[in-house]
Amino acid sequence: MSQPESSHATFFKRLTHFMGIEWDSVSTAEKLASTIGGLLGIFFIAAISYKVTGASGAALIVPSMGASAVLLFAVPHGRLSQPWPLIGGNLVSAVIGVTAYRTIGDPFLAAGLAVGLAIGAMHVLNCIHPPGGATALAAVIGGPGITSLGYGYVVAPILLNVSVIFMVALIFNNFFPWRRYPAGMMRFTDAPAAATNATPFVPRASIEAAVRDLDLVVDLTTDDLQRLVTLALEHTERAGLDRLHIKLGHYYTNGKHGADWSVRQIIDEAASDDPQKDMVIYKVVEGKGLRAADSCTREEFAHWAAREVFPENL
User: Fold this and answer.
1) Would strands 307-311 and 188-189 be described as parallel, antiparallel, or unpaired?
2) 114 close to 139: Cβ distance less than 8 angstroms
3) What 8-state DSSP symbol labels residue 157?
4) Is a pLDDT exceeding 90 seen at residue 20?
5) What pLDDT is stored for residue 240 in this prediction?
6) How far apart are CA 269 and CA 184, in angstroms?
7) Neighbours of 48 (CB within 10 A)
8) Taken in order 49, 155, 170, 23, is the CA torsion positive or negative?
9) In sequence order, which residues have a C-beta less than 8 Å from that of residue 177 and are 6 or more positions away?
10) Is the Cβ–Cβ distance between 201 and 195 less than 8 Å?
């Protein structure tokens, strides 16, 4: 018979739930990549913007770029981090912020309208990017160095800052095979193109309907939500693969994180009268050991593989 939780344990559980604390399992390599990416993103914005404009302070680099850096380098696959939210969210917010400052005499009301209308516009244009709120606010309360720019604020620093951080994110994130930016550049998915008897699958339309039912903005793309639910169902059904799951032409991952992540494709096989001696030949198509080829028993390959993955756009 299970023991009831102590009052302290119950309080701690309720507190962590209220505070939104969830212990993640992100790898050290991923955390390090995020840290270095943020450093490089802000460095290049400041250096290039200074070279182009010679400005200083917020006219050189707006504080909202710090928040954008968190999204682009710590959550590169997130829905709010993608190119359209980054570019559209910041630019439309900048236009609204400047307009509010120039047309509303009361600075408090102008600040509130700038942020509120920016949020509404980002919703309508489907480009919600949280730093956009700071971009709009800075246009109102950024001081003479910003307000004197008028609508030039939209071009420099905003468009210039956004262009630089986008290019840095595009180049930097794609140095690492387990992360891609934009998210649409991911080559493999845990969700198959169609349902199969062997693989649990939740249709995209069902995911979209569930998000509509919640009526919430979820910082995951629909594709990532589909992968997450499908993978969760797969983990529920089985703890791993056995040799019968390993098939010619299919792709498999070891399910590891960071630099150890890898995807292999079975390119040939050699059957044996003894099932324990069945051989497979594979090539590494993504991640650690890229383009290498080798062979092993089907049993050994199944022990290495965590799950099957599916190539995108094929």
Assistant:
1) antiparallel
2) yes
3) I
4) no
5) 62
6) 32
7) 18
8) positive
9) 261, 286, 287, 288, 290
10) yes
Rg (CA), the chain: 24
Residue 23 CB partners (closer than 8 Å, separation 6+): none
Q: How many residues does the chain have?
A: 314
Which residues, 6+ apart, have CB-to-CB distance to 141 below 8 Å?
A: 107, 111
List CB contacts of 56: < 8 A, sequence separation 6 or more. Answer: 50, 145
| CA 44 vs CA 39, 70, 193: distances in Å | 9, 15, 39
Which ranges constitute the DSSP H helices of 54-198?
64-74, 83-103, 107-124, 131-141, 144-147, 152-153, 160-173
pLDDT score at 218: 65
Which structure tokens are listed for 17? 């739930």
Sign of CA dihedral 201, 204, 206, 210: positive
User: For residue 237, which amino acid is it?
Assistant: E
pLDDT tens-digit series, residues 219-260: 667 777 777 777 666 665 555 678 888 999 999 999 887 788
Pair 252, 262: CB distance under 8 Å = no
Instruction: Count CB neighbours of 157 within 10 A.
Output: 29
Give the strand order in the sheet containing 279-287: 188-189, 307-311, 251-253, 262-270, 279-287, 293-297
φ and ψ of 267, to 5 deg: -110, -15
Q: Is the Cβ–Cβ distance between 41 and 170 less than 8 Å? A: no
More confident site: 268 or 310? 268
The alpha carbon of residue 223 and the mean position of all alpha carbons in its chain are separated, in whole angstroms, by: 11
Model confidence at 195, pLDDT cuts 50, 70, 90, reads: very low
**pLDDT tens figures, 72-109:** 999 998 899 999 999 999 999 999 999 999 999 999 99
CA-closest candidate to residue 262, choices 240, 282, 284: 284
Scan for tokens 């829905």, then name that residue: 79
259: Cα within 13 Å, side-chain hemisphere: 5
For residue 177, give the 3-state DSSP assignment: coil
The Cα–Cα gap between 11 and 22 comes to 16
